[in-house]
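Q: Got a minute? One more chain.
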Amino acid sequence: MTSLKTQAKVAVITGATSGIGKAIAKAMAEKHLCLAINGFGSEAEIAGVIKELKEAGAKDVVHLPTDMSRTTEVEHFIESAIEKFGGVDVLVNNAGIQHTALVEDFPVDRWDQIIAINLSAAFHTIRMSLPKMKAKNWGRIINIASVHGLVASTHKAAYVAAKHGIVGLTKVVALECADTGITCNAVCPGWVETPLVEKQVEAIAAANDITVDEARHRLISEKQPSNRFVSLEELGALCLYLASDLAGSITGSSMPIDGGWTAR
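A: Always. Here it is, folded:
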């Protein structure tokens, strides 16, 4: 991947203080981009992430606290990134939350929050970033969807609806930008060992009175034929490729990286 070339100078990545978002930010840092990120964490934890990204090679890093469920804050996040760095070359929509329940039991406030953070926020970051990308006739939009943007699972109505929406939004943006130097793609990971997935593992262990290791195996083996988690490094490398000049003809795609989950 070290041979990949990109015109990008600035990457904006949501949910980048841990897990998938942090791995993507690190991959971009290694290409010496300026990074605008948001995400949860204490002041000390965020300072540690910034230090780690700078040590990885980022030219500059700014963390902008953002409530991704609030349109005005999402707008301010993109406006602040543009003010700081002059534009957005690579936009990675990664921020997301999860809640599981049967449809008839699904809390309405949790539905609204998941749709806002997992879907609407991506719409707002894209619409705010496109004018600068179009002015340069170059840009890369990478939406972190999920296998649940392609297939469904029970108890995940809001998450599955939001991720299917992300896939649809990706296709529309790709078509509207098809005659420009801007691409828009969705990355669809299977099980990745992130804090979000770890909570699901712990919930399975508690509900079934089994060990965390047994719960982890049960979770992976049910869906993912590879019987292993997708690594964070694999996801970072894929996003780095999509941000490169070599990926200029890849747009509107929904790319599974799922150990064979959607091949069944």
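A: Residues 192-229 form one domain.
Q: Perfect, thanks.
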